[in-house]
Structure formats: structure tokens, C-alpha cells
Amino acid sequence: MSDTTIKRDRPWLMRTYSGHSSARASNELYRTNLGKGQTGLSVAFDLPTQTGYDSDHPLARGEVGKVGVPIDHIGDMEVLFEQIPLEQMNTSMTINATAPWLLALYVAVAERQGVDPAALQGTTQNDVIKEYLSRGTYIFPPGPSVRLTTDLIAYTVEHIPKWNPTNICSYHLQEAGATPTQELAYALSTATAILDAVRDSGQIEAERFAAVVGRISFFVNAGIRFVEETCKVRAFTRMWDEIAQQRYGVEDPRQRRFRYGVQVNSLGLTESQPENNVQRIVLEMLAVTLSKNARARAIQLPAWNEALGLPRPWDQQWALRMQQVLACESDLLEYGDLFDGSPVVEAKVEELVAGARAEMARIAEQGGMVACVDNGYVKRELVASHTRRLRAIESGELQIVGVNCYRETAESPLTAGADAGIMSVDEAAERQQIESLQAFRAQRDGQRVAAALAELRTAADAGDNIMPASIECARAGVTTGEWSQVLREVFGEYRAPTGVDVAEAQRGDDDTIVALRERVRATGEELGRPLRLLIGKPGLDGHSNGAEQIAVKGRDAGFEIVYEGIRLTPAQIARAAQEEGVHLVGLSVLSGSHMELVEDICRELEAAGLAGLPLVIGGIIPAADARALQARGVKAVFTPKDVDMNAIMGDMVDIIRQANGLDSAA
Amino acid sequence: MAQADSAGLARSICDAERAAIARALNLLDDHRPAAQEQAAQLLQELAARCREPHRRLVGMTGPPGVGKSSLSAALIRVWRERGLRVGVLAVDPSSPVSGGALLGDRLRMKTAGDDDGVFVRSLSSRGEFGGLSAQVWPMSLVLLAACDLVLVETVGVGQREIDVAATCDTTCFVAQPGSGDSIQFLKAGVLEVPHILVVNKQDLGSLASRTLTELRGALGNLHPDGDWQVPILSTSATEHTGIEALADAIEAHHRWLVERGELAARRRGAQARWVLRRLEQEYGRAGIARLGGEQALLARLAASEQNPFSQYETCRGQLQATA
Fold first, then answer.
1. Which has the closest alpha carbon to A73: A437, A585, A568, A560?
2. Which residues in B lie closer than 8 A to residue A529 (C-beta atoms)?
3. ∠ CA(A517), CA(A530), CA(A558), 5° rounding?
4. pTM recorded for the entire structure
């Protein structure tokens, strides 16, 4: 190495997506992580906070503090950022339907810390469109949702100029099955839908509009096909520059930059031989860092054990260290772009751009992204892509090491410990959160709360920007549930298309599925009527990809499937099981609240006289919990390592036969 | 099930006990001979109750994507506000490859999921009757005994799907704004004229009003039954407009049937067609000919007070005796 100083690029922002149990516990975790060299915060909120319910709402049962931190009011938000000076922090919040509310709380906390809100830096995800397609934490219909998104954008451009008001997500589209072309097309179509809405809202003067375009940022996924993924981010960069210039007339190249953050792929992380996830994560990180001209601005990496359960602080530290080794030890940041001029890369980029343009044209023909969410087009395309992917894994055409090939393994010392290699959330967290919420409500100024909520309703009704009234609500001590309830009353609630309705049926050319269909048919014949399954998605968790794929597979196997989408209460599930006369209920739960939800559903089924109806569950369920569920009467527990869906269907037939006193053969 | 058991089950159905309704629907779906026999007994028990003139059977059909589920959900809300207990049979197509089906998508969740006054059963078309479920007619009788109003919703683009709705007292056809298909069908006489025509998605503005005008033109002087004037209504399920008017039109048609004393005849006619189709499926046109031909058979069936399963068994007996 020469002794002249080498100029190195500044590394990206390094974050870890985290938060759990309570504001207090999460604050301690954040300060620890910052002490370890993390350079920004990425806040994970729990599902009640994301879907606008207070911690003591019946729908929140079992969900409080599970997948993130519960924030009920300004008191929680203040504790979350205690001893973290907000003017120096860059905070990313994964929050969508309730994004205006969480930003309002952040602003109010800054005021209390004596920080000028204009100095705040960070990101609100604020992309509800992808919530309808994946993830599922939407509340309102598309029209009002787009309006809230544009209000937040218009407000921050004026008042918090360094804030990234929306992070248009392709991340969750890939999780829902999107191909790189679909990721490009749907994310960019979403971005133009939102920008068009901001422009048409008349909240921003024409000459300031370029600044709005310049504040739009993206949240991208990186999968294991890392060469193609590199080309994908280069394609994004090229296409966004073009759209900003041609559609919105932005002159300044800096305002046309495709600025994006990354969480690498969780879909491909495996439960079998979970240590292999480390090399997967590293390769995926390369996809979004190697090409300087298309490098991510911020990266958060999942932990190696995400498919097993909640990561521990040590697991998150390991993920952070991967980034630090790449940025600090390797020579990556010393070079210009490695791919400029490569004909191989250029050809692939061109192919992706052409495919994405064609798909964007199809979206535009149907009236744009919002119309294509509402009419189910995009969701059906995603479900179909995901089905193709799972079929390729099943057939072995797509190899996954440790899952459908190279499966022999020595015992892993990583999961051998007493905690089985994952963290469990403190059982008392939910109760404590509810107690502190009730204490908070008792001491606040009721009149000020009522006045602030009345003002919020007026603003929502009149079409005024929602932010000023929301900030006053935050100051007044309004709760998350109260803020959301007012808007639910004004805007109404929405259920998105499930996408499973017209996904293609598997052609009967494969022996396994033909044999399976015959078993399904014959068992139905013996029981007097076709076999019917209810696929239920209880709780607030909106990650419906697994449930959708089981529904499609079940249909292809010859079952009559009743599937009604996400966010069902235990009572609704038991009721549907009864009214529909099903032979088996299959539940899907990924939020970690399976113990509470299963208990409630078992009770409701018993109350409906359906105690003997077999119940199975799929999700991220640790082995100890699986044993407890089976002791409660659950007939089978499926986890991410069960990739053979034909086998799952076969198990369901066996379970139905057994429950109805038929022999297990046939 | 002994006679006494089916009487008990019938009583529980009349009390609108959900477990009993569900059990009865499972029984009607069960093709095993013992179950069919019990089903016949049960329907015999319920027959008088079903004939009560205030109980109405409403069919709704129309092409996919026209917003029938949203419209049904909006109507159910109005009926509930009017104090009616509502039963729903939602028929979805089954896969021709696997025979499997995806059912119940969205309808129940859009109606009040916790409302005890609504009962929803989804059915797959199971490839029977050329795209409609053989279970619809007997199941709608069970729901009629338990509810004030039964809604049968089918996805349909042609005559065979319309047939399901046509077994109802009142048929509503929901047309797609901007699509001339249903208008062409009407003009060509492919579509049996429904009792009520609806253009949904009024929020699409001029497209919807143009379709409305075209339908008025196409309908001309066609009348499905006697002097019933077919109303053409526009609705928007998303904005909840025109729903009350649609509910009123359905009421008006029901009143019209009752005042003319045609309700009972209509039901007997629907049942006769159900029995006929089932026989046709099993024994073909030759079988129907051996029973005296379609017209004579329909007339004979419509004159009988027996439950549909017994009618069917009687005809089968005749066919086997002459074989």
C-alpha cells in the first residue's frame, strides 16, 4: 500500500431495525447499539401502533411489544428517545397508515427536548400502497390513504426540509413474490402516483415541486441473485432520473438521484441450517454496495436467526459488524463505479428497464397504481409470481442449500443454548404497557384532548393538511387509538383484494399433485361431501404471503378453500368455520402472538360446539411453543422449514381422516 | 336421523340457531343415501315455514369485477337496518383442473362479521349444472326457514349462471358500466330478462350514465313476467348511493308477486326446474323423455307439494321401474 492518503467515500448509514417490549427497553437497546458504532436508528413499532390501536384494545391482545415497540402517546415517545439528542440523530421509522401521527409525536418530543423541528432528520416509511399488496398494516381506503401520505410530504417539505417524508418500498413487493422487473415497475408506479397526488393537491407551488421530487426516497430489497440485484438498482437509478426529468421537469441532477435505503431479503432466509443465512446476507449486501453510482444511502441487515424467532442483541450486533467489516476493512470505498462500461451489466440493465417500462405501461392503461391495487391486478400478479417461485423450490429447479439440497448437517452449536438461539419477549410487557397507558389517560387534561381531537376531525373533514392538528393532538396527550379512531370515523376502513382469486391452477402433469388430488377427492367421497378448509389469518399481522400460497395450493389440490384475508378476530374465525361447515381450520401467524391467538380461537371453537374440529397452524413458531400448542390440541405446526407444500396438504388430509375416524391409508 | 330428530333440527333452524343451520347445510351437501333421506325429511318439516309469504329469496348475478360483493354487502347493511334477518349463499366457480375452489373472498368481512343476524355459506360451482351448484336450491330453503331474506349471489356472464338467480323470487342483474356485453345479450335474447337491472359503479360518472341509457333502450318493452315493469337503477357501493332504492325495488317486486298470488307458483316452478336438471344430469335427455318429456314433467312437478329430494327420488323410482 502506498503511503499517500487514499481518499475513501463516506460509508452509508448503518442501522438495525429494532424495538420490542416497551419504550424503556427499546431506548436502552438503541443507546447500546449507538455505542457499538451504529450511525442511525431504525424504529420497529408493534402492530397495534402500526394499525392504530391502543395497547388495551381487544384486537391488540397478544401483539403488544411483539414485533416492535408499543407507542400509545407522547409519554412513550419521550421515553423512547430519552438521552438521544434528536437534532443529531437520523431516525428511520417503519410506519405507514399512522405515519402522520408518529411524525407528530416525534415533532412534539423534539419541542420538549428544546430542538427546533426544522432541524430533524430521518425518514417515515409512509407508503400505504405496498401495505395493500404485502405486509397489510393499512387502515383506510386508498383515496384517504394517499391524501394522508401527500399531507405528510407537503408538510415536511415546508417545515422539516431535511426529512424524507416517504420511502417508496419495493422491499415488501419482493417479499410478496415480485420479480426484479415487477419490483421496478410497481415501486416506480407507486412513486409517480404519490407525486402526481401531491402535485394535484395544490399544496405546493409549482416552482417548489422539484424540491418535493428531490425528497422522495426508496426502500429496496436485495435478494441472493446479487448480480441481477446490482443491475436492478442500476436500472432504478436510470429510470428514476428519467421520470424525474421527463414527467416532473426536474433540472437539478441532484434532485433526480435515486436515493434509497435497504433491508436485505428476509424471504430467502432459512430455518434449516440457519448459519447459512450469514453468507446470504453478506452477498445480498454486496448487491447494493458494489456499484458506487447506485449505492444504498442506508443499510439495515436482518439477523441470521430471523426465521427462527426474535433476534437477540448479539445477533443484531453480528449483523451490524458485517456492514462495518465491508465499509472499514475492505477497499470497496476507495474506487469509482466498478461496472460502468461493462457490456454484461449494461445488457442486463437494459433488459430490466425494458420489462419494467412495459409493465408500467400496463398499469397506466388501467388507470395507474391506485386503481390497480383496488381492482386486484397487482396483487394477483404478485401471488402468481410467488406461486411460481415456490413451485420451483418444490421441484428442485430452484436450489436452496440446506432446504432442498445438501440437507445433511451436524448439530448447530448456535441453536444449542438454553434460549434455542432466539430472544423471548418479556411476558409482563403487555400488562405493564396497559397499566402505564391507563395511568397516562387518568392524569391528562381531558378538555385539551377533546379539543385537539375535534380540531383533527375538522381538518380531516375539510381536507386541510392533517399535520398541524395531529401535532397539537400529540402535545395534548391524545393516544394512538384515539387519533386513528377519529380518522376511521371520517374515512372509513378498507379491505384489500387478497389476490388469490384468479391465480393460475397448477396443471395436472405432476404425479404428486395428481395423487394428492385423488386422496382429497376420495376422502371427500367417504365423508359425503368435498373437503373444505378455512385458512384464517388472526391478529393484526398482515404478512399474508404464506396464507395466500396455502390457499392457492389447497385449491390446486382440490380442496374448497375459504380464505377471507387478514386481521380476523378469533370470534370471526370460529364463526366462519361454523357457517362454512369446514373440515379443518388452518391458521397463519408470523407476529409471535400465536400462543394467545390459538388459545382464544380454541375457546371460541369450543363455544360454537366445534371442539373436535381439527386446527393446524403455520408461522414462525419456536419448537418449545410448538410443543405447547400441540398440548393444547393443535394437530400440526408448520414452520418455514416445511417447504414441501404437497406434503403439508397430505398431512391435512391425514388429519381430517383421523378426526373423522377414517383409516390413515387411502 | 329419526323423524323426531329432524323435527328438532327443524325447530332449531326456525329459531335461527347458527349451529343448527350449519349442521343442516352440511347435511344437504352430503350425498350419501342416508344423509339424503334425512335431508328430505328435514325439508318436509320446513316446507310450510318456507311458504310464509314475507320470506323472500333474492338472486344477484352479473359479470366478474362488477362489484357484486360490495353491492351485496351494502344491501345487507340496509336489510339489517330494516330489521331483516339475512342468509347468504355465495357461489364461486371451481377450478376445472383440480375441482378445488377459493371461496368467501371478502363478502363476509365486508358485512358485519359479528352480526348474529347474518349467516353466510359459500359454495363452489363444482362443475355441476354447467357452472352452478346443485346445492343452491335445497340450501336456500333451509336459510329461508331461518331468515326473512335469502340472497343468492353468483358470478355469471351467461345463461347458465343466470339460471341460479332465476330460481329466486326476484332476480337482479348487475351490469358493468362501459361494457356492452350484457346489453348485447339482452337484445339477442340470450339473457333471460331479470326483474331488476342495476348499473353499479355510478362513481364512474358518464360511463355509468351512458350504460344506463343504453340498457333502457335495449330493454324496450321486454317484461320477464306479465306486467312487471323492470326498474333500471344505478348504484355506487363505494359511495353507498342508490342502495336504499335498490332494496325498495326488491321489496316492490316481492309485493307484486304476493299480491298476484304468484309467489307459491314461482317457487314450485323453480323447484321443478331443479329436479328436472338433476334428473337430466343423471339420466340425460332420454331419461326426461321417458318421464313424459320436459314440459309434462315440469307441469307434474310444479303441481306437487313434495320436498325436492322426494320429488327427485319418486322420478328416479319411475325411471328404474321402466328400465
1. A437
2. 26, 29-31
3. 30
4. 0.86
